[in-house]
Design a protein that fits this description.
Layout lengths: L15 E2 L9 E7 L4 H4 L2 H5 L4 H8 L4 H21 L10 E3 L5 E3 L7 E7 L2 E8 L11 E6 L8 H5 L2 H9 L2 H22 L10 E4 L5 E6 L15 E9 L5 E9 L8 E7 L3 E5 L6 E2 L3
Parallel strand pairs: 2-12, 9-14
Antiparallel strand pairs: 1-13, 2-6, 3-4, 5-6, 7-11, 8-9, 10-11, 12-13
Helix pairs in contact: 3-4
Length: 292
């Protein structure tokens, strides 16, 4: 099968026809799709055909064709991947509700699968938490992807990041600051998406540090956290990496779930063309949870 590499070099893993070999298993998995690749464009119709009427209406409200294409792929992508775990449910038959904090979830009456979706220009990321009962240890999951080649407005870090993060960021050599900025941004987004609070949670009320090579550590700052954000029941751990494409595009990918839920090697990462092809990427993470 002739497909663009997207995330890997000449030694990349082999593509398999959808759903691939051994792609579905219990645990936590991350599914990636390059939505601007020629092969991904060929999957637009497959994804669009399984969208609900409400999703189709939302898609048509986007002014620019590229945004309509990304919406179709991202939301059809979710449906096709969930059907890999529960093939008795056709992609078009999945329904979704909004949780207590506004986080999308599978509707009542359908098999339970934890998931979280993120997309940025050029890349869609989906995290799926699943075991034989459809529940992944009760822990939330959040994933975020950020286009790391886009322009950064002046003062953004000081406005949104914790003071500790700003100090560490500005101490780096200038060539390293861009990657650190987007690593922090994607990590923060993965956390507020896992909790379900989104941007209503102050981004300076928690911080990340990169003290040990290849590790990321997390700290809450209760004095900056309004009392309505009850998150003490959730002890998060994080993974983060930078993904590069042959065209020079770069994305920061971050994943958040509960501490003690799984070991690093239990996370599987797949690159896909929805409904057409899939391959496993291993290894992929630059930073993993720091030992405590």
């Amino acid at each position: 099968m002739s497909l663009s590499s997207g995330l890997e070099d000449a030694h990349s893993p082999t593509w398999h026809r959808w759903p691939g070999e051994g792609a579905v298993r219990g645990g936590l998995s991350v599914w990636l799709c390059r939505d601007a690749e020629p092969d991904a464009a060929a999957a637009i119709a497959i994804c669009r055909d399984c969208l609900s009427d409400e999703e189709l209406a939302r898609m048509t409200r986007f002014r620019f064709p590229a945004l309509r294409q990304q919406f179709a792929i991202a939301h059809g992508f979710v449906r096709h991947v969930l059907s890999l775990f529960h093939p008795q449910v056709a992609p078009r038959d999945w329904r979704f509700d909004t949780g207590a904090q506004g986080k999308p979830e599978v509707a009542t009456g359908l098999p339970r699968v934890g998931f979280n979706l993120s997309h940025a220009t050029g890349l869609v990321a989906l995290a799926v938490a699943y075991d034989e009962t459809g529940v992944f240890s009760g822990d939330p999951v959040g994933v975020d992807v950020e286009q790391a080649t886009r322009n950064i407005g002046p003062g953004i870090a000081r406005r949104y990041f914790a003071p500790e993060e700003v100090t560490d960021l500005e101490a780096l050599p200038e060539p390293e600051q861009r990657d650190r900025f987007f690593a922090l941004w994607s990590l923060k987004e993965s956390y507020i998406k896992a909790t379900g609070y989104g941007l209503s949670m102050p981004l300076d009320s928690f911080s990340f540090a990169f003290d040990a090579p290849g590790c990321v550590s997390f700290r809450r700052h209760p004095d900056r956290l309004p009392p309505e954000f009850a998150t003490d029941h959730f002890t998060p751990v994080f993974w983060q990496t930078m993904l590069s494409s042959p065209a020079g595009e770069r994305h920061s990918l971050a994943l958040c779930t509960g501490a003690g839920t799984l070991q690093d090697d239990a996370i599987t990462v797949f690159e896909t063309v929805p409904g057409r092809a899939v391959r496993r990427l291993d290894p992929v993470w630059d930073r993993r949870p720091a030992e405590t």
